[in-house]
Amino acid sequence: MINEYLSTSAIARNYKIRTKDLFYYLMSKSYLYKEGKHYKLTDSGFKLGGRYREQKEYTNVVWARNCLDEIIADNLAPHLKGGKYRYPSGFKGGSMEEDKIISAIESGEINAQNISFDIIKKEAITPTPTDVHGELDYGHAILDTQDQLNKYIYSYSAMIKSQWVQMFNSLKVPLGNIEIIDYACGQGLASMLFFDKHKDARNRSNITLIEPSEIALNRAKKILRCYMPKAKVKTINKVLDDIAENDIQADDSAIKLHLFSNIVDMDIFNIGKLLDKITTIKGKNYFIVMSSNRDSHGGSPRLNVFYNYFKNNDLYKVIKAEKNSFVMKNPSTYPGAKDFNVRYVYIETKV
Ligand SMILES: C[S@@+](CC[C@H](N)C(=O)[O-])C[C@H]1O[C@@H](n2cnc3c(N)ncnc32)[C@H](O)[C@@H]1O
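Above: inputs. Below: predicted complex with S-adenosylmethionine.
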């Protein structure tokens, strides 16, 4: 008798899907709701085949054995691709999950007064994120779960901080309105570090965030809105090759800061074609590229391509062009942790 009804997690296990995805799906479709920490059935949940099972200390939701089959097959069932379970397109597990950074901002725990890179990091990595390191593909993957977003911060935030703090400490941005364009922004870590350093710029800046991962972009948007409550925060959910000239519109008089944080080294977009579209934006433009210094899988040779693009043109004036590298100490005490070898390109132009 008892086997005719299964718990939500037993059903998820049978289908090799994640229990929390199944719970989120059932909540999003109003078959379940939460009372405190406990899941409760709605009328539709009962109609679908749910009921309660009394355990010793608590009451559990269970489901008639096959009543979720159709829902899972249509919306959640993974299919095997390249040896890994993937969700069918149209279902994004991550977009249904609660984003704890967004929740912390919405509850006011993180707010315009206390927001910083470090506070976002602490929230994202406490408790220690589930180990999905392999799914990050060395940071190159287009992320689609909350575990991946948090693990990305856990794994790469120290490196990214070491790169940009160094750059922003030496960057003198003229007073005036600023327009940041953060290319493949991920969760917006580079932009956050800019506003940590240049607090006064929060009231005179607008920002455009470009990123193909929907959940990373949503998180970045919420974070940057929190930093700059009065600003225009524009989001573009695209890969870089799909960027059109009119996607990026900035005031001629604004100082345009084009941030490329750990993206130019990835061999996934055409550097020349992108620069053709953005280097003629009128006014003062700063192009800043940061990446780890390596010669494989794209790497530093692509930063040279970026740098060389600015030679020999008559469409704009190059005020300053610099490329260099530096090494930053890795603060990790983890045995074998390597120092960060950073490569950067800095170009200042006037159109
Ligand atoms: C190494 S991460 C850098 C993220 C962010 N700029 C940072 O420093 O944290 C690479 C980013 O590139 C994004 N990405 C992957 N393929 C892309 C593409 N073809 N066009 C634009 N972004 C892409 C990923 O979603 C990811 O956010």
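Residues 80-86, 88-94 have pLDDT under 50 and may be disordered.
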